Amino acid sequence: MPQEYLEFEKPIAELEKKIEELTLFTSNGGIDLEEEILKLQKKSDQLLAEIYSKLSPWQKVQISRHANRPYTLDYIEAMMTDFVEMHGDRAFADDPAIVCGMAKLDGAPVVVIGHQKGRTTKERVIRNFGQPNPEGYRKALRLMRFAEKFNRPLITFIDTQGAYPGIGAEERGQGESIARNLYVMSMLKIPIVTVVIGEGGSGGALALGIADRVMMLEHATYSVISPEGCAAILWNNGAKASEAAELLKVTAQDLFQMKVIDEVVEEPIGGAHRDPRRASELLKEAITRNLGEVRSMEPDELVKLRYEKFRKLGTFDQL
Amino acid sequence: MAWFKKERPESAAQEAPAKKVKIPEGLWIKCDNCKEIIYRKEVDKNLKVCPKCDYHFRISASERLPYLVDEGSFLEVEDGLSPKDFLNFKDYKDKLKSSRKKTGLKDAIISGEAKIGGKPVSVVVMDFNFMGGSMGSVVGEKITRAVERAIEKRTAFVSVASSGGARMQEGILSLMQMAKTSAAVARLGQAGLPFISVLTDPTFGGVTASFAMLGDIIVAEPKSLIGFAGPRVIEQTIKQQLPGGFQRAEFLLEHGMIDMIVPRKDLRATLAKVLDFFAA
Ligand SMILES: [Zn+2]
Fold this sequence. Notes:
heterodimer, A: alpha/beta, 2-enoyl-CoA Hydratase, Chain A, domain 1, 2 domains, 14 helices, about 15% strand, B: alpha/beta, seven-stranded mixed sheet, two-stranded antiparallel sheet, about 20% strand, globular, binds zinc ion
């Protein structure tokens, strides 16, 4: 898939195009422009680093939704082996907006669950734009219990704009399906590590997110409501999403500061979408390290600490 | 949240939703459902239910208590919690102030200990008049504490939900109240103690997607609107008109999402019967 550029990445796009032209010219037997190319490349790298060092919350939201950003299946493929995808909730259907199965991480068996967006238009439709229905959450629930039954650690990837708002979803109990996962995850007697890899959209994201270690990629976001939705309520104007993103505090850095997450996982300069391989390496290191820390704990201790971790979230005045 | 403000009148007149949150002052009132003009005292006497069409008016948490627990048994647990505008969110301080003035509450819930049919319970009642009953840190904390009290005292836990969902003005920490309350309910279950969840008009979003749908028994008031996504959001997404009766308590019962629909006048007696099962 060709690299897509966000509005604020346009200056980089221009430089990269120029470099491409010069490279093509050189390789076609023209004058050797290597020096010029190197100079431009350096300029482009500097610009990229500069732009990415001072992103606004709204720019981060856009990056978290970037069409070239690695998705769950990309990370599974890059960092795990022997992945066997499992399907269906055994009650109604299989939901392609959530993928899950068994895999090996450095040779050790794990269960992995994540939201899955589509890359092409056709795939996006099949994956319902990464917005699960209740059967998706119930498939995830089945795999959580499966992981516990066979005593395998659970790794989850969060990347959704939210649970799907549809008639069928309501008929089949979207609310209950999310609630049940929160209930069950809080009690699972296995280590759980969660990473928000892109968009963490509200309850539909949280439904995979009760874990012993909760991490976010550097440019991922996590929010109670989408900035567009918030802006529509506050100003009757979804176009003011950028202001809403500031107000809501949705970035990985904000959440780390609020102690809602345990770690911000570094992305390559210019974001995970610019170097998915390096992004996977960095993420794998963080996952194995965090898993290693919780892996040796007694199950009862894990559950107790997990409860306390979420129990203390909240800010209020107490007289 | 906001989708309750501008509700589209539904196709079937019978299903017309409640627009008003509170019964207006005055001698006579108009029913939101059947549009009949009724003598106010008659409605009050009838547990705030329309005598003509059986429509259940939305009521405040304090109005709810007499229909829920044994007379004089409610003991509020005043834990001194009040909400904090830690994000410095647009208009939040003003909204809290006006909600406090309107309801006399510090936040959208009251919690306490009471008896139902003589059985001790830990109970919370949400109040839709306080910022649409939205769940932020205080609401989540009060629910969690009430569940923990139930575990400590080995009683049942009863909640009455009435909420537009998570409170946007407290950002991600509101979302985390879903995790916190659900985990508390899971602990209650592990302790072998019952949770009875009562859903009233309206119950949505992060409240539906957390503790409220986790009851061992789930009861709803007639015709209550209950769902995850708001009807307006769904309509905008699917670009279709919603079927009549969609997301009403009767719809949820039909689809297997709740155990029963109980009219207000029978609520306490029904809960007493259920609690007796666990006490025996
Ligand atoms: Zn009426």
